[in-house]
Amino acid sequence: MSDAAQPTAAEVRAAAEAVKTALDRHLAAVERRSGEDDPAVYEAFNELAAAAEAYDELLYDRYDEVTPFEIPGAEDSLPPYQGPAEPTALSVLIRRDYAVAEPQRLLAQAARVEAADEDATDDDRQAGTLPGAIGLLFGEFEPDEIASRHKEFGLEEGDSTLWVTALDEPAEAGEWLESPFDQTDPQRVVCRFDVSAVFDDEQDGLEGLEDADDEPDPADPDLDGRLGYDPDEVMPLDDVDDVEVVERGRGEPA
Which residues, given as ranges, of the chain have pLDDT below 50? Predict the structure, then answer.
C-alpha cells in the first residue's frame, strides 16, 4: 500500500476509541439482558465485532500489526433460532452473484431466444443491450437452470447463499412483493447454505497438506531401497504366483 493510501495515526486512534466504546456498550447490554438470547446483546455483539474488525484493518495498514480479536465467520453470524418449534410455513431467500465474463456470448444467447419468439415485434426486441439481454434470459429460464448452465450464458459464478426461514403462517398473496427482503428475522432462520471460492481455496490447501504427507517423493534416492526394489532387476512372469486384475468403476475412489 502506498503512503498516500495509508490511514493516519489519528484514524487508527479513533478506531481504537470506537472499540472501547463498543466494548462498554456490549458489557452494559450483557449486564441488563432480559434473557439468554436478548436481541440487545446480539446487536451490541455485532457492533463490537464490526468495530474490532475496522480497528484491526487500520492498525495493520498503518503499522503492519494485528490484534488478537477473532471475527466470527458466516457460520457464527446468525443468532440462535427463536422461531416456532413446528413451522407450518417457510420462506426461502436465495442470493447468487455472477460476473458477466463473456458479454458477447450472453448477447448471442439472448438473441437466439428472441429469434425463436415468432410473436415478438421490433418494439419488443431487448437482446441488443446487456441489461435487455439479462432481463430476457432470466425471464426465459428458471434461476436454477441459469445456475447450472451459467457458462453457456457467458456468466461466471460468484458467492451464493440460501436461507430457509420459518413463518407463523403463509403470507397473503402479494403481501411482501414491494419489499421482499425487508422482513427477514435472523432469529427465524432455520438453516443456511453458503457457497464461496474461499471455502474451495481452504479445502485445496488442506488436500495439498494431506497429499504431501501421504505420497512418497519419486525423487527420493532412498525410496527404491526402502521398498526392496531394484530398478535394474527384471522379474520373469513365471515367477509371479498370483496376478489379480481389478477393474475400477467410474467414479469409485482410488
Answer: 1-2, 74-75, 218, 220-229, 231-254
pLDDT of residue 225: 47
Question: How would you label 154-171 residue by residue, b for 16+ Cβ within 10 Å and e otherwise?
Answer: bbebeeeeebbbbbeeee
Distance between CA atoms of 130 and 137, rounded to whole angstroms? 10
Query: Based on the number of CB atoms within 10 Å of its own CB, is 140 exposed (0-12), middle (13-18) or buried (19 or more)?
Result: middle
- Cβ pair 51, 20 in contact under 8 A: no
pTM, rounded to two decimals: 0.50
Q: How far, in Å, are 65, 88, 201, 238 from residue 61 at the CA level?
A: 8, 50, 24, 70
DSSP string, 73-88: -GGGSSPPP-S-SS-S
Question: What is the arrangement of strands in the sheet containing 89-100, beginning at the earlier edge strand?
Answer: 89-100, 155-167, 189-195
**DSSP assignment of 39-76:** HHHHHHHHHHHHHHHHHHHHHHHHHS---S-----GGG
Residue length of the chain = 254
The H or E element spanning position 214 is: helix 197-214
Alpha helices per DSSP H over 64-187: 103-116, 130-140, 143-148
